[in-house]
Structure formats: structure tokens, C-alpha cells
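Dear colleagues,

As part of the handover before I leave the project, I'm documenting each prediction I ran so the next person doesn't have to rerun anything. This entry is a single chain, and its sequence is reproduced below.
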Amino acid sequence: MESGGLFLRLAPGPGSTVTAGATSTAAQSAVGMLRIAMSVTQPCHIRFGDANVGAATSSDLLLVSGILYMWDLTASRDHFTAIRDGGSDSVITWASIA
């Protein structure tokens, strides 16, 4: 992963991971985190929301590999779902940085 070295310096520990496949992931929790760093191994779509966030679809925000994303979170936006974009599953890694 191209941003792996930078990710390790910014985030404490190895972070949490989930694999985005052909169907949307279950809601992933970032409760209690104010800001997260996130990277992906393959293109995928992500949807943020509360604990009841809906399934991610191909019309949601597209993330691509090689970029370290930073997200500010709120109480109404502290969960996410994701789905792959194309034929390859994507491993999403995130960790709190604030």
C-alpha cells in the first residue's frame, strides 16, 4: 500500500480493517473518534451516517488506493458502510488520529 508508511506514523497501532466486497459491508463503527485516517487497497464506495447508515452503493463517494483520506466525524456521522468498485475486493483500514 503506497500510503502505508505515512498511515503508520499518523495513526496509533495497526488500525481497524474491513473488506468491501460485492455486497455492502455492515455498518462499521468509529464511535468516540473525532478524526480518522483511512486508506483502501482497491477502489470502493463509502457511505457515512449514524448507526443506522444504509448500504453503500456505486453512487456513493468513490475512494481509490494510494491516497490517505482524513475524515472529521460527528455523532450523526460516526459509522460507515462500503462496497467494492469493480471486480476486486478492497481492504479498508482506518484508525483514530484525534
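Helices lie at 4-10. Confidence is low (pLDDT under 50) at residues 1-8.

All the best with the project,
I.
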